[in-house]
Design goal:
- By secondary structure, the protein is an all-alpha fold.
- The protein contains 14 helices and no strands.
- It has helices at residues 4-9, 11-35, 62-90, 99-121, 132-149, 151-154, 166-190, 197-214, 224-245, 250-263, 273-294, 301-330, 334-337, 343-350.
- Helix 3 (62-90) runs antiparallel to helix 4 (99-121), helix 5 crosses helix 12 (301-330) and helix 10 (250-263) packs antiparallel against helix 11.
- The radius of gyration is 22 Å and the shape is globular.
Amino acid sequence: MPTISQSLEHPRSAKIALWGGIIFSLVFTGIIWWAGQRLGSIPHLPDQGVAWYYWKLITPTFWSHFTAWMFYALHQITFWSLIFYAQTRVKKYSTGLHPVNLVALAANVFFILLHFIQTQVWYDGLAQDVSIFSSQGSVILMLVAILLMENKRRGLFWGKKIPFGKRVLSFVRKYHGYLFAWATVYTFWYHPMENTFGHLIGFFYMFLLLLQGSLFLTRIHVNPYWMVVQEVTVAIHGTLVAILQGTGIWPMFFFGFTGIFILTQMHGLNLPRWLKWVFTGLFASFTLLIYSSRGWVQLNEIIRIPLIEYLLVFVLAGLVALGIWIVDRFRKQPAVAVGLISEEQALKDKA
């Protein structure tokens, strides 16, 4: 009879964790919808514009502040600690699960349940104290970092790789888990578990990201199709939320994020050339259909999100490169100190 360790090492364990996590995400999203009905009696201030977050208490209490920030901090520290443990103790990828993956999955389930209880009892999330743009910005930063990190494998523009530099990409790949864990956990605790359609889609997306983060150092974690799911889900979320809000800017989100899929993301899926052109043709055809009635003057909407994200890719790469340069100037063996190159390479460069 196989031991627990041997069972975890089997590739099937990672698949079970993945599909079990997806099913859990769907079921718990349904629970949020059902339980959110009792939150309808909570009063809110009138909507005050694009920078206003509607779902927060009119009169917050000490406990609404304390629980939101304390539980967020515990979740954040726990996730970061597990990533650090995996990088320093486990180190190697597995086709199955490592024991630390089970701990990460259990921890995230615990904090999902805790946030559910916290919403039902005290309601407020981090939104009471910080700007809505900080939540949106954290997710954008994560998506930008993915574009930068994946440049080596799939390129940035139609499969063409940008020469950002090995040390920049090495740094981002090594430390991206901490950034992604922050972006996910911070956004997760920013919102109360309301049952509006936008919240439900958003929390389902957060559950998928927490699931992905829990599967670090497994082959499932770097499966290109599963990774693209994490990226394109934001297109579905952004588009549907914009439609429900009735602002009329849903094409900016739909064509913006699907445009990034056409330009970048699909080129990491090993698709045949003809299928890539089919996707491109469908994108172009739908664009012509929508803007022939919407008005060609609005066509600039489709480049707004890609322009911002691609520009931020170069900004992020530049900031990382600047940080490496500063470290190189102020430490005797800086690259070794931050884990970018081996000691042998440092001695060779010094010679």
